[in-house]
Amino acid sequence: MNEHDGSERLQQQVKQAFAQHTPLQICGGGSKTWFGGAPQGEPLQLAAHQGVISYEPTELVITARAGTRVQDVEKILAEQGQMLPFEPPHFADSATLGGVIACGLSGPRRPYAGAARDFVLGVKIINGRGEILHFGGEVMKNVAGYDVSRLMVGALGTLGVLLEISLKVLPLPARDITLAHVCDADTAIRHMNQWAGRALPLSGTCHDGKTLFVRLSGAVSAVQAGQAELGGEVLEDGAGFWSQVREQQVDFFHDAQPLWRLSVPPTAPALPQPCWMDWGGAQRWWHAPLSELSALRRQAEAMGGTVQLFRGRTDHEAVFHPLSASILRLHQGLKQAFDPRLILNPGRMYPLDNE
Amino acid sequence: MNTSFPTQEPEYNVDEPSLLRALQAVLPAHALLSSTEDKRPYECDGLSAYRSLPLLVALPENIEQAQAVLRICYAHKVPVVARGAGTGLSGGALPFAQGVLMGLSKFNKILDIDPLARTATVQPGVRNAVISEAAQPHGLYYAPDPSSQIACTIGGNVAENSGGVHCLKYGLTVHNILRLQLLTIEGELLTIGSQALDSPGYDLLALLTGSEGMLGVIVEITVKLLPIPQQAQVLMAAFDDVAKAGRAVGDIIAAGIIPAGLEMMDKASMQAAEDFVHAGYPSQAEAILLCEVDGSLAEVEEHTQAVQHVLTQAGATEVRISKNEQERLLFWKGRKAAFPAVGRISPDYYCMDGTIPRKALPEVLTRISELSQQFGLRVANVFHAGDGNLHPLILYDANQPGELHTAEEFGSKILELCVEVGGTITGEHGVGMEKIDQMCVQFEPLELEQFHALKKVFDPHWLLNPGKAVPTLHRCAELGAMHVHHGELKFPELERF
Question: pTM for the whole thing?
Fold first, then answer.
């Protein structure tokens, strides 16, 4: 699989960009160019840098190059009865593992199994000086050095170009079932939080405004016991439903207005707006015009959370919730430490130059 | 015991009288210790072979006092070492002779428990086990359970990213915290993370977890709480061969089961434990596995049967299932008492903490046993088998001249072996002062430089826990030269994955 190893080519390109102060936009499968700030700079193509480097099912660890398609990784895992526990959305077949990790995207299982960052064990990166560096490894427990691997998750490539990623994987559950309960948003919030405090095999919860959907996954006996405890109507095609939720293909998301994502404490009260709620109440989605930006930020902060313009950015609005001055300073410092000439994915996250 | 740890760098010129006056102005008299006698209890942490008296011990009682201490140290350019309960095993809280040791033991309050949101907000000096005790009436608990959980504090757990016997299923500290209040070296109070599941920007919460007090001082923590499982059961399996026991672990995982706990003990550690607590371990076995399954009643029954079948197929000479809670606790008692049990059969022991890919276990154990012959010191192995974290306990006698040094040499060989087979020099105890030299084996100079650049963002003057966790390139170069001198090359061909 060495013909798929583009490390050297990529390193040369970053070194050259460093020497010439050339901004680079890191390109994977092109499935999420709409995510975050607008890409700018000379393309650095990762898609051909692909392939699974090692996979040991009984060690629960897979290592793959960043350009490997997520669907290919999931297929290889499924053949061994395993999965990516954070259930990442793809948003297109071309989605790469590097893109999912750089964007830090997790799906419906996130509140119960963990986020993308929780499963990253190690990375190989190129920093903004064109240096190839390894952090973490292929073992579950590793506290040698700062946790740079997890720092890369959700950093949108602004601290380094991901070359290889090692992930912890888990067995596929023996059984899944989805139960539907008709209830309003306040009741749904209460149920989701109360049930998460009981020993139930929860693996997904969402509320579409009228109905609360609950997925249980695990040992056959555990799922049966959970179903007996919670009741509700069994959804026929549970797998299809959660795949549509994960990919934002359910009706709610078919709306021309910009899409906003609110990350809040799971017990935060229901919003006055009609919204889609998932992650046990910790993630809320709704559509609103860009003119609502300031109001939405105030609302999010009042709820103890933050808001992100998820889809529908323009050149004029900051996509991510503003950081406090002190936290922004740390971001600028970290950017300097990894990418002193600010060449990696400029503008994709926050303005990170110290000027 | 001697002070065999190597010289720290860089040098600091501290104006001691001026520092003392400044601290006296912001701390009550009882919160500032300057006499040798008062400072003595703080001279070491759980790695008692390394000792050093700090210039001063500050014991702030609230955030404002801690802030004031840091501001003064920053202004005077004095190093600060933060300390929780001092149970760490890597010398991470070893005082700096020219610095202030800041103890956080007075930050010992649980501030809030939110049963509906399943979170607890606590001060860093709260002991790990106390959080679960406080959450218990709500049917909740805090999952990470390092074996020192009765004594160790949550602040130290965050600084070290502590694990425990249940971390294969429930994760490490980093997976179980939501929010930190952090004091920078300038004394600024920052909030990292939130009650939500994620925060915008870089994952500073992950970066700070396990950063060994090198980036800031944690003064408040919000942790996640989980529902207490309905039931837990332990299977104990005996094997006549360590390699067979190792393969059985892989077989359990291949069967699609993630046990709540999965521990292995070799003959030496098992016999010591059996003699100590009479857990009923089969003393003729070469290795035993303890496998805990938890969940609903039906699930535990289903998984117990499945695991029993796998263990039998894997060649276990005997499989026993805990008949009741009393027996489950007895099976665990032997494992949890393994360290003190080994302490009974040897005047001293030195606990190592490498992680290896599990498949490398037979090779690693064989080579440890060869090293044991070579160094003339006995070794007992305790293994968090589920996640590959190996704790070889090297038995020695500190009263025999040179034995501590031999034990340290033996230990560093074991850690280098862990790196060689694709593992790491520390799974959960941290680098601290103890494994600083092995960091030169695990990381390339460019990677160490990246670590230093990162630290500089938080601590430009190198004042927070200096000389720990990440070695200077100078130090590695000197060490490299020393190793060449002894004719031992440090695996130049290694891939560090």
Answer: 0.95
